[in-house]
Amino acid sequence: MRYTISGKQIDIGESLQTHVEAELSAVLEKYAGRPTDAQVVFSRNAHEYVCEATVHLSTGLTCQAKAHATEIYASFDKTLEKMDKQLRRYKRRLKDHHRERGEPVELSGASSYILASEAADANEEPDTLQPIIVAEMETKIPALSVGEAVMQMELAGAPVLVFRNENKDGLNVVYRREDGNIGWIDP
């Protein structure tokens, strides 16, 4: 497994890197089977340390967790606890999907845009109805079943997930509703 442990404008010592690798590999061995790579990024937000961890699993799914604390080791431990809880919750599903899926999830390329928010003065008429594009990025759309898409959305902690439905070969969307249930859009 490949580990990428880094810090945003802070120095990450050798002992912290060793601690992260040892603790993360212990949790992943317990639940995930064959993870391919893990990225852990430490940063500072005022007086707190923030730890963000992303683990890519061999099934093509991604598990993400984020936590903050006043000490750097505590922020990692909280992040690891969240990831442990997610993987424990989805262990049965991960094993079932791993048996069914013989090869990794297929990814398709797509463009992702960030649009500027409305002008500060709401009384002003906009010059044009076209939104201002702030940034353009490349993103990947996975080919999943509906169950895998819901699991991926929950593992990533995302409010919405766009995916290509393996069974119907069309774009679908799953999202978290305000009532706590999951919505599925199948055009």
UniProtKB/TrEMBL annotation:
Keyword Coiled coil attributed: yes
GO cellular component: cytosolic small ribosomal subunit
Keyword field: Coiled coil, Cytoplasm, Translation regulation
Intracellular or extracellular location(s): Cytoplasm
Residues in the signal sequence: none
HAMAP family from the UniProt entry: HPF (MF_00839)
Family, per entry: Belongs to the HPF/YfiA ribosome-associated protein family. Long HPF subfamily.
PANTHER family assigned to the protein according to its UniProt record, in alphabetical order: 30S RIBOSOMAL PROTEIN
Protein name (record): Ribosome hibernation promoting factor
Highest classification ranks of the organism: Bacteria, Pseudomonadati, Pseudomonadota, Alphaproteobacteria, Rhodobacterales
